[in-house]
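Shipment paperwork, digital attachment
Item: protein structure file
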Amino acid sequence: MIIKHCVFFRRLRWIFQFLKFSSLALVTSLLCNLSPPVLANLTYPNLKHPQTQIQHLVTHTQSLVEQGKAFYEAGQFAEALKVLEQAAIDFKNTGDQLNQAMVLSNLSLTYQQLGQVTEGEKAITQSLNLLQSLNTSKDYFAIIGQALDVQGKLQLMQGQTEAALSTWQKAAEIYQQIGDKETLISNRINSAQAMQALGLYHQAQKTLTEVEQTLTSLTKLPIKAAGLLSLGNVLRSVGDLDKSRTILEQSLVVAKQVQSSKAIADTLLSLGNTAFTQGKSQLTIGNTEFAQQQIQAALRFYQQTATIAPPTTRLQAQLNQLSLILEILNNKSDENTLKKALGLSSQIRSEINKSLPSRNSVYARIQFASILKKLRHQTTINGLSNLDIAQLLSTAVQQAQNLRDQRAESYALGFLGGLYENNKQLSDALALTEKALFIAQSINASDIIYQWQWQQGRLLKQQGDIKDAIVAYDAAYKTLESLRGDLVTASQDVQFSFRENVEPVYRELVELQLRTENLEQGTPESSQYKLKQARQVVESLQLAELNNFFRSACLEPIVEIDKVVTQDKKAAIIYPIILPNSLELILTLPNQQLRHYTSNISQEKVQSTIALLHEYLPDVAATSEVKQQSQKIYDWLIKPAQAELSNNGITTLVFVLDGELRNIPMGVLYDQQNKKYLIEKYAIALTAGLQLLDPKPLQKVQLNALIAGVGEARSIEGRKFSSLKNVAGELKEIQMEIPNSQEFLNQNFIDNNLRKKLQTSAFSVVHLATHGEFSSDPERTFLLTWDKLLKVKQFDTLLRVSDKRSRNIELLVLSACKTALGDQRAALGLAGIAVRAGARSTLASLWSVDDQSTAQLMSEFYRELKTGISKAQALQRAQLAVFAKEKSPYFWAPYVLVGNWL
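Attachment content:
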């Protein structure tokens, strides 16, 4: 008896979620995040019919199953369907229910590949019903395990994640019972994917670790290579890129031992995808040199893949390679690279024209069309036209219809609509978009519905139909909100497109809302509604961005900030929104209606001004340059509302900052007319959004502190950190102000010591004086302890160690930290730490400051806190005390208070 184990593709919904079509070159290769697709082979049951007749039927049906398997593995799912359906009929006629059940489960897989979910459900249900009536045997258990695996895959594809996990766990019990270690590995990897979708990250990581340990002991090398390949792909999808590369390198070694050219090619392709992903990751945080190294490594992997791979994998490698070359062109255009891109595109065109109709062929055409569209922006060379791209997409539509693959048809139609949009054929574009949207809605594919709703909104806006455009944008926004949990679990590759393919939906909707608020002469109530709605949309964007940063939902029960302002009659909330052609400002004053101001300044101008200011701030000698740039931002953010702030006696400004504004301290904004920095006029605080963690005035809390720091020079994880000579003095100063404190200095500052102390005692203040860095990459957002880099994702396990604690940490102080150089979204890491720590307030620095000034500021801050004023006021007075001695913003400006300002 020979049984090959049925394993399956990663669901397409995860792959295409939030991807712009220019990123589709990685799609087919990403399909292997779950175990590689293999149809099960036949078992050999007892024969009940005359031997000669049965032998003929068995031989014929075996041939059908083998043909179906060959078609399936070639991506020719329609052909596979025909022969497998006939095989199922033959097994039914011979009374071979066991193999009939096996073929039905394979049929379910094939139906799923064709997008025929209902038929897939019927086939797997029929398979399971047949198996219930059979006698138990090892053959029986193996096939029912396979059927459960297929059912779990179908449930996952339909978004029934909990049901899929439960079904796979049942299959796992069967594999354990019959000792089928190899299939159990594939099952556990797939279960880990479902755990990730449910937000069970620790459980998923534990499962993957167990899988890795089991894989190393396997003696069957083909199974070991496939398992390592799947594990490496899963690790890439959860963002563990270093580990992904290590595991994939192990898979390559085993594949070479097996001497399987297909296994080698698949692994090389995955190594290329991981390197490409890592390169893009490093580009976003400004690590250009390492990013280029990874991109070049990815290029080599794709080239190696193309030389040894079978046609389908070779085509995917070429598409990925071309996509990568275009990434290089985007950063630095040169003639030789452009020639390579054009030459490779000709090879791909030839390969696609030779390919037989299949799901892979359809998506390859869509991917290639997206790349050609991008390539047209890089060259004026003849041979690339919209007509070529349209023909590719038209063929993709026809093939998808023939394959009855509605998802692929929707993608092809929608992208064709986008092509017409670029060509300003708006009516045709809208018709195609609406047809794509109808198909996506008919199969309840929310992950692509939002893309066509967004495209529909853009087209309606261009046609001047603003009212209907807002309806379409609002629908896209609501669809994205319903997908927020999926956005959290989207693969690392998909996450890079967040700013390009998710954020614009929110911002363009807000722009339309504020535009109609300005143009329409409606009632004050309708104007207030639109302002609140616009503010809520950006709030949702910021929440999605923070969840995207952590890859998990991370916010606790919270209180609306507007309600807090009604308690603090001297506080106002300033909510700037950066739009393509304007900087919008929404002002909240205590017990008053929202105010709205507009500065007609381009997004590029805002960003360039912020970038210049950010560059000058850490330079002690650049005070005049800082004033020059910060004055512009003052005029945009504060000057329009200055009269209202003065008339209402406002003394505290609370900012909910947008985009790159989060990278600069608001206190440094300069009022040229009155020759004063903003910190000289107002106490200042920041919040990550319009809601706070159950705010409470600090004067109502007894102060006691856990204080820790590293003052000596350290070398950890290949990074060198200079000594902070005043750390010991800083901690002593704090102890003088807060006698009820516990200190951990240098060797004693290890996370285990802090964890033990936090488990046994409740502290209102946690003060950490050590090197740290804030980055848009959670893996590069850390604090230095004596023996390790404490990553942001570990904060919840460190600072929230006891469920018995009756209250949160009131104040977390991080001194001597800085934002990562070259990372325009680095302050996201600060917001992430503030949220992850679970503290009501976080005080931190945006760049490393002279530690003597830091010690002075911190001592003054705690001294002021004891007088009963708010945390924002205490910080203001501490900064002004340093300002009195050192006028350069370098010394006093970097400190920001995030969260509860009371």
